[in-house]
Design brief:
Helix content is 77%, strand content 4%. It is mostly helical. It has a domain at 56-98 and 130-170. Strands 1-2 form a two-stranded antiparallel ribbon. The relative contact order is 0.08.
C-alpha cells in the first residue's frame, strides 16, 4: 500500500470514527435525558403520594385526639359525679340518715348459714356499723370504683386508637 492510498483510507476511517462517536454521544444524551425525565416523574409521584399519606395520617391523628379528649372530659364528668354522690352518701352516714349493717350468724359461720335465711325467707340478725367504719368501707369502694372508671377509659382509648388506625390485633 502506498501512502497515497493509505491516507484517504485513514481519513475515511477517522471520519467514520468521529461520526460514530458523535452519534453514540447523541444517543447516550437522549437515553440520559429520558432517564432523568422518568426519575423526575417518579420523584414527583412519590412526593404526591407522601403528601397524601401524610394528610391522611394527620386527619386520623386529629380525629383520634378529639375522640380521646372527649373521652377524657367524659371521665372527668363521671369522676366528679361519683365524688359528689360519694360525699353525699358519706354525709348521710355521718349524720345518721343512712345506717349500714351487715348480717351476722348466731354463733356459726355465715358461710354455713341456712339457705332459706340467705334467700331472705326469715329475719336474720344484723350488726350496725359505726359511721367511721362505714365511711372507711365507702372510701375503699369509692377508690375501687374510680380505678374501674379509669381502666374503662383506658380500654376505650385503646379501642378508639385501634379502630382509628385499623390495627389488627390477635
Amino acid at each position: 500500500m502506498t501512502a497515497t492510498t493509505w491516507r484517504p483510507l485513514a481519513a475515511v476511517l477517522l471520519c467514520g470514527t468521529i461520526a460514530g462517536w458523535t452519534t453514540q454521544g447523541w444517543r447516550k444524551d437522549v437515553a440520559i435525558a429520558a432517564l432523568q425525565r422518568a426519575a423526575a416523574t417518579s420523584k414527583t409521584n412519590a412526593a404526591t403520594a407522601l403528601a397524601q399519606a401524610t394528610a391522611r395520617v394527620l386527619t386520623l391523628e386529629r380525629a383520634a385526639g378529639a375522640a380521646l379528649a372527649q373521652r377524657a372530659d367524659h371521665l372527668t364528668q363521671e369522676q366528679t359525679h361519683a365524688k359528689t354522690e360519694r360525699d353525699r352518701f358519706s354525709l348521710d352516714v355521718r349524720s345518721g340518715a343512712v345506717r349500714l349493717s351487715i348480717p351476722i350468724a348466731g354463733g356459726q359461720c355465715a358461710a354455713t348459714a341456712n339457705s332459706t335465711a340467705a334467700a331472705g325467707h326469715r329475719h336474720e340478725a344484723r350488726a350496725e356499723l359505726d359511721p367511721a367504719t362505714a365511711a372507711a368501707l365507702d372510701a375503699i369502694a369509692g377508690d375501687g370504683d374510680d380505678a374501674t372508671r379509669q381502666l374503662n377509659a383506658c380500654i376505650d382509648a385503646y379501642n378508639t386508637l385501634r379502630d382509628t388506625y385499623h390495627v389488627q390485633t390477635e
